[in-house]
Amino acid sequence: MKPQSDRLMMAFPWLTLTRTSPSPPQTSEESVRLDTASLADKDAQKKRENGVTEDSPMRLRMEKFIKEQQQIIVKELEKVDGKKFRKDEWNRPNGGGGITCVLQDGNVFEKAGVGVSVVYGSLPKPAIQKMHADHKTLDPSVESLDFFAAGLSMVLHPKNPMAPTVHLNYRYFETANPDGTSQAWWFGGGSDLTPSYLFDEDAIHFHRTLKEACDSHDKTYYPRFKKWCDKYFYNKHRGECRGIGGIFFDDLDESERDRENTFAFIQDCLKSFLPSYLPIIEKRKDMPFTEKEKEWQQIRRGKYVEFNLVHDRGTAFGLNTPGSRVESILMSLPLTASWKYMHEPEPKSREQRLVDVLKDPKEWV
């Protein structure tokens, strides 16, 4: 069984996948029959003929949305930093592809990555049976199902230790019937903040912005997804959270609400990123700092690396899959980090207060 793209593994780590085999050459008669085309071919034809509209399949609308948001976010981050992102576009032989934008050694960001991935493939029966436990609309008796997956992922590591690292990921997954119509679907994602120095006003602003996006759709979302975030981004071996959280959720499907309303929720969450983070980075990027404070940032970066390499499902899945592209999987890691043996912050210091909050997450709003 050949591995899927490692970019899919990062966004959808719980999948066991097979690569779709290239379609055999078609006869002239077959070429005009829509039912012989792959899901990727059908979608490509839809985009050529009609573009992407409100009547298009959700998978095409999600792809269009995250690509638009990627452009907006990259443009705004370039304004903050003053340097340009490197943009790499890639295509998959059997449909899909992506755009990876990376800024390294910038004026503000030590390393920043904003990536979109779009993947078409086929789920084998064991994967379908495994997913059926959480998604009852999947038929566990079929031998395979075409699937579509799309997501936007981002990690920003600022140079200034007073400015926080931020992570974001929003994604959509769908299985399709033979005629290309949707069978099962779900959304997932979230955004979280990881400071080296804790400014309460920053934490409150970040969480309040996310809460407002959640509350406009369901007032139970923010407390539920905030708790989920604290639980997932947790360094078990350190007994502390990776950062001060945000929101995180997975498998939002028809059991929660209809697809249109869920998509609207995802759109508002993703659009809330710039308002949640830009005021913070603008306020902190030029603050003075000492060598000792920079050293603390490097130590906290080490904890960030530990989570990504030890506990993050996407990283583990990718690194253990033959043929995966390691550089893409590890793009989320900072350029620099450090580990000091038996290092402990001074009692009652700003550094110690951060650790106290990481060990006992606060309700910021």
From TrEMBL:
**GO terms under cellular component:** cytoplasm
Listed Basic and acidic residues bias regions: 40-55
Q: Which GO terms describe its molecular function?
A: coproporphyrinogen oxidase activity
Pfam families xref list: Coprogen_oxidas
- InterPro entries recorded for this chain? Coprogen_oxidase_aer, Coprogen_oxidase_aer_sf
Xref: SUPFAM superfamilies? Coproporphyrinogen III oxidase
Q: What does the record list as coiled-coil region(s)?
A: none
Oligomeric and partner information: Homodimer.
Which family does the record assign?
Belongs to the aerobic coproporphyrinogen-III oxidase family.
- What name has this protein been given in UniProt? coproporphyrinogen oxidase
